[in-house]
Amino acid sequence: MLSGAQGAANGFTPVYQYATLTLTVPNPTLDSLTVRRGIAAQPTVIVNGQLYANDNLVVSEAGRTKFTTVGANGLRVLGDLSADSQLSVTGTLVANGFLVANNNVIVSEGGRTKFSSVGANGLRVVGELTAESRLSVEGDLVAHGVLHANKDINVSDGGTTKFSSVGANGLCVVGELTAESRLSVEGDLVAHGVLHANKDINVSDGGTTKFTTVGANGLRVAKDLTAEGNLYARKGVKK
Fold first, then answer.
1. Which has more confidence, 166 or 20?
2. Sign of torsion, CA 185 199 147 174?
3. What is the mean pLDDT of residues 204-227?
4. Whether the Cβ atoms of residue 211 and residue 222 lie closer than 8 Å to each other
5. On the CB side of 186, how many CA atoms lie within 13 Å of its CA?
6. Which terminus of the chain is more solvent-facing, meaning fewer CB atoms within 10 Å of its CB: N or C?
7. pLDDT band at 11 (very low <50, low <70, confident <90, very high)
8. Distance between CA atoms of 158 and 19, rounded to whole angstroms?
9. Tell me: the pLDDT tens digits for 117-175?
10. Which of 94, 91, 124, 95 is nearest to 109 (CA)?
């Protein structure tokens, strides 16, 4: 073919035609592949290095999407998500079903850990722990701050309840109740056995003390003392 200048000089005008060819390469092995538009792979795509998608990524099987970036601010997995090594999520990880971690799980924000299983025989929550429904703990539950239960709390060992708020207008302790420091009860305190106080006991109503051991060498009753049965005194009784 003559060049444009040569063709015009000889009375010929060059004509350029372009054609789009579709090439099928069975089992290709490429060092790198750059596609400006879209790429569709029918069977399987295996990437030993990094896979970049500037727009969206959709992986489906038999017409059912397994995971996609379409309509998601990140990656949306419709079925199970399995990571043989480490799974790192910079934004939010939402699990509508079970979240299973074969090794450890760490959730942090701004470099500050919120909860983690690293170094813990279970789950360690650094801040607040909120359960909209039921919270079940197989082992120990340690709260360094205040423990809130919006409905009920039940602590059992070997199927035997130790203490519970179920069916009680407060807290029902089945066995012994031991307080290392102060024990404060807003309503009634009912002891079916012996009530021990290693230091003092004080019972008041409306801010007025009824009886107490505070400041007394024994028990001081502020007002009337009523005994339905016998009243025994090892020493004398003073008025």
1. 166
2. negative
3. 88
4. yes
5. 3
6. C
7. low
8. 78
9. 898 888 888 888 887 788 888 778 888 888 888 888 988 888 889 898 888 888 888 88
10. 91
Contacts of 195 (CB under 8 A, 6+ apart): 189, 201
Locate the domains of the chain by residue range: 152-177+187-196, 197-239
Phi, psi of 6 (to 5 degrees): -70, -40
| CA–CA dist 84, 44 (Å, integer) | 20
pTM (2 decimals)? Answer: 0.49
Given a contact cutoff of 8 angstroms between Cβ atoms, the answer to whether 115 and 99 are in contact is no
Percentage of the chain lying above the pLDDT 70 cut: 94
The β-bridge partners of 61 are 64
Q: Which two tokens stand for residue 98?
A: 């079970």
Q: Are β-strands 172-173 and 160-164 bridged in parallel, bridged antiparallel, or unpaired?
A: antiparallel
Q: Which of 202, 227, 230 is nearest to 215 (CA)?
A: 202
